[in-house]
């Protein structure tokens, strides 16, 4: 199960866990796994309920308490300030309990680190504390610690330092897919100065580690679309669909890249339509988001009626999807 989740196979994991829970509704570990899975499908209420059930069944497992802490943190993010404060209090209590049970539980430490980094000081945020937590993680698991440091710097414009942390993560565990995919994503997508040649190299190295995961193909699709290498793009999309038929994220990644460079919108439309042809994998853009992207493609082309259709479709899927609401209001009032 850990391998499935680490490589992004959330649909497969969900099917297995649903079967386990049908056989035994009191399987605490299965409820904990389900909480993690549902977070990745953006079902925070369901994740919280599953994590609560796991802890109720066995409160003495640090991982279950850590999963509850993560679910509370996610609920705090989407709640109003009053409810959010209550979830933060529950999160802190779960973190305290988890680390009392297992002071080296890195999953829990990562939850605490990201809260410390992102939260305002009035809610308990402390960026220096976040860095100290990343240091502690490094002492326990170097590869995870290096990735943690890189994550803290992701939006800070410190390319050289971030690259160093990511390269250290790859060196610490050359067979860890996440480390290689994270380095490729940095080069192609999050660095201030993109280096697509290095992104291609790192993505291919990730695929060599495990060709059954989607991320490497997505990153190559982004690179090839950006560089308008059409034959390579079609080839990697075919490879991705064959290797990971239940995750069409590479098509969506290619479509976004084409929109970013303003090229071949017909191809981008075809890719988005393909992506919408099956349920989205966990951690991938939802169908509401994909339809919003498609609507923006139509807006760029001046196809107002098509854009309105897609925005309304997005809101039927997710009524509170704010980007679609804002764009629909703007178009209807224009």
Automatic annotation (TrEMBL):
It comes from the Bacteria. Pfam families: TPR_16 (PF13432), TPR_19 (PF14559). InterPro entries: TPR-like_helical_dom_sf (IPR011990), TPR_rpt (IPR019734). Gene3D superfamilies: Tetratricopeptide repeat domain. This is Tetratricopeptide repeat protein. It comes from Paludibaculum fermentans. The lineage of its organism: Bacteria, Pseudomonadati, Acidobacteriota, Terriglobia, Bryobacterales.
């Amino acid at each position: 199960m850990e391998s499935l989740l680490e490589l992004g196979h959330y649909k497969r994991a969900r099917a297995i866990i649903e079967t386990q829970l049908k056989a035994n509704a009191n399987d605490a570990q299965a409820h904990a796994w389900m909480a993690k899975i549902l977070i990745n499908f953006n079902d925070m209420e369901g994740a919280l309920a599953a994590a609560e059930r796991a802890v109720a069944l066995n409160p003495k497992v640090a991982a279950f308490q850590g999963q509850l802490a993560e679910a509370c943190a996610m609920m705090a993010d989407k709640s109003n300030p009053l409810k959010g404060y209550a979830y933060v209090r529950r999160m802190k209590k779960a973190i305290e309990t988890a680390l009392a049970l297992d002071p080296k539980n890195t999953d829990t430490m990562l939850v605490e680190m990201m809260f410390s980094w992102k939260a305002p000081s009035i809610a308990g945020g402390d960026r220096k504390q976040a860095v100290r937590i990343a240091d502690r993680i490094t002492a326990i698991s170097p590869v995870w610690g290096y990735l943690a440091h890189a994550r803290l710097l992701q939006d800070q414009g410190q390319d050289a330092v971030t690259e160093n942390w990511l390269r250290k993560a790859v060196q610490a565990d050359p067979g860890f897919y996440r480390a290689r995919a994270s380095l490729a994503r940095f080069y192609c997508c999050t660095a201030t100065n993109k280096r697509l040649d290095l992104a291609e190299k790192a993505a291919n190295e990730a695929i060599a580690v495990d060709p059954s995961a989607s991320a490497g193909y997505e990153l190559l699709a982004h690179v090839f679309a950006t560089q308008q290498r059409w034959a390579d793009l079609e080839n990697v999309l075919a490879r991705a669909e064959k290797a990971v038929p239940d995750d069409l994220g590479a098509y969506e990644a290619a479509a976004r890249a084409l929109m970013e460079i303003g090229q071949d919108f017909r191809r981008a439309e075809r890719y988005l339509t393909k992506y919408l042809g099956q349920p989205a994998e966990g951690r991938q853009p939802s169908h509401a988001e994909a339809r919003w992207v498609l609507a923006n493609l139509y807006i760029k082309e001046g196809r107002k009626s098509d854009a309105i259709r897609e925005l309304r479709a997005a809101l039927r899927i997710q009524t509170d999807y704010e980007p679609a609401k804002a764009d629909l209001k703007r178009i209807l009032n224009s």
